[in-house]
């Protein structure tokens, strides 16, 4: 019943045409998570539940007031848009509302983390995609996504607990999703992230460290895993939009985060607890087929796009060269 509530919450929020119903659907998911928080075996479970309740209540109050004005067009104010975006940053755990994620995730069980970092992010991300109608909000969301990707990768290198590392990784991947909101492919990236996260936490719950190591490498975005395809698509879409700074900053965040992914991969891969399960082993095999999907299904599309991009780039270089030569001739 608890899992049904957490999974039905984003369906209610995104399928409703009324803001009040959408907000209630999102709060149903938050309330449905409380029994899972109470069933933790950690001594700090009540403290984490109160922390989660206070932060999410503040974000819900801000979102409710700003959403009424924003969706009913009562008054076109940039302050309302900023308030709505701030509430979504607290809900999603992105910069500047990312401060609660590592400490809260560190005190929760694997099942609670799966619900917190997975289905409950779908509805706020859907509302975030409605803010990109204006150019100011588009660039602001892009900036928050870049900062989240960088900060999440830096925070992950300072963690020694696997739970805190997963929380920092969630901040970084949420930043990638924000960039995906701006350029496209947000739902494909989120679907891949949710699948990998679910199986990774399931392998930890079943003490299958071999499968967990494979999932961890996939989450880092290394080829030939599935998340490599998701990250590559967002990078190419940002490149096609001529956003070179976003392109290089996202690559830099992936390189920084690769350090702690490999650190935890080595520590868990070299253990003797390889209780490999059949289902997880099959998914690990399918996870390795991400590069095959790129080669056989996506190669034509991306090759055509890359050819168009390089033709445009070469034409712009030729035009700039011709203009430079004309200026030199005029000067002489």
From TrEMBL:
Subcellular location(s) per record: Mitochondrion inner membrane
Name of one Pfam family that matches: Proton_antipo_M
Domain NADH:quinone oxidoreductase/Mrp antiporter transmembrane: 16-206
Alphabetical list of InterPro entries matching this protein: Complex_I_Subunit_2, ND/Mrp_TM
GO MF entries: NADH dehydrogenase (ubiquinone) activity
Catalytic activity: a ubiquinone + NADH + 5 H(+)(in) = a ubiquinol + NAD(+) + 4 H(+)(out)
Gene Ontology CC, one term: mitochondrial inner membrane
EC number: 7.1.1.2
GO biological process: mitochondrial electron transport, NADH to ubiquinone
Membrane topology term: Multi-pass membrane protein
Segments crossing the lipid bilayer: 20-41, 53-74, 80-101, 138-155, 176-203, 209-230, 242-266, 278-297
Entry keywords, A to Z: Electron transport, Membrane, Mitochondrion, Mitochondrion inner membrane, NAD, Respiratory chain, Translocase, Transmembrane, Transmembrane helix, Transport, Ubiquinone
PANTHER family (alphabetical): NADH-UBIQUINONE OXIDOREDUCTASE CHAIN 2
Record-stated family: Belongs to the complex I subunit 2 family.
Protein name: NADH-ubiquinone oxidoreductase chain 2
Species of origin: Biomphalaria glabrata (Bloodfluke planorb)
Gene behind the chain: ND2
């Amino acid at each position: 019943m608890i899992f049904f509530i957490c999974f039905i919450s984003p369906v209610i929020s995104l399928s409703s045409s009324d803001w009040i119903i959408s907000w209630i659907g999102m709060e149903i998911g938050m309330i449905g998570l409380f029994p899972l928080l109470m069933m933790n075996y950690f001594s700090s479970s009540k403290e984490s539940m109160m922390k989660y309740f206070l932060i999410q209540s503040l974000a819900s109050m801000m979102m409710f007031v700003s959403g009424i004005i924003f969706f009913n067009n009562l008054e076109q104010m940039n302050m309302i848009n900023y308030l709505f975006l701030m509430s979504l940053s607290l809900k999603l755990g992105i910069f500047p509302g990312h401060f609660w994620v590592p400490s809260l995730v560190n005190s929760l069980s694997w099942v609670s983390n799966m619900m917190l970092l997975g289905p409950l992010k779908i509805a706020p991300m859907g509302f975030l995609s409605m803010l990109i109608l204006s150019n100011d909000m588009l660039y602001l969301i892009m900036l928050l996504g870049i900062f989240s990707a960088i900060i999440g990768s830096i925070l992950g290198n300072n963690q020694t607990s696997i739970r805190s590392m997963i929380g920092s990784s969630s901040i970084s991947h949420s930043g990638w999703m924000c960039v995906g909101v701006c350029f496209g492919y947000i739902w494909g990236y989120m679907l891949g992230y949710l699948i990998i996260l679910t199986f990774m936490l399931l392998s930890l719950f079943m003490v299958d460290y071999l499968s967990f190591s494979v999932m961890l490498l996939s989450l880092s975005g290394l080829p030939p895993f599935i998340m490599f395809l998701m990250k590559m698509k967002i990078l190419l879409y940002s490149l096609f939009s001529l956003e070179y700074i976003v392109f290089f900053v996202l690559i830099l965040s992936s390189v920084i985060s690769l350090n702690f992914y490999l650190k935890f991969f080595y520590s868990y891969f070299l253990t003797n607890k390889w209780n490999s399960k059949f289902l997880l082993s099959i998914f690990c095999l399918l996870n390795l087929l991400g590069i095959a999907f790129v080669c056989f299904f996506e190669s034509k599309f991306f090759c055509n796009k890359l050819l168009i991009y390089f033709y445009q780039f070469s034409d712009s270089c030729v035009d700039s060269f011709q203009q430079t030569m004309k200026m030199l001739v005029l000067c002489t």
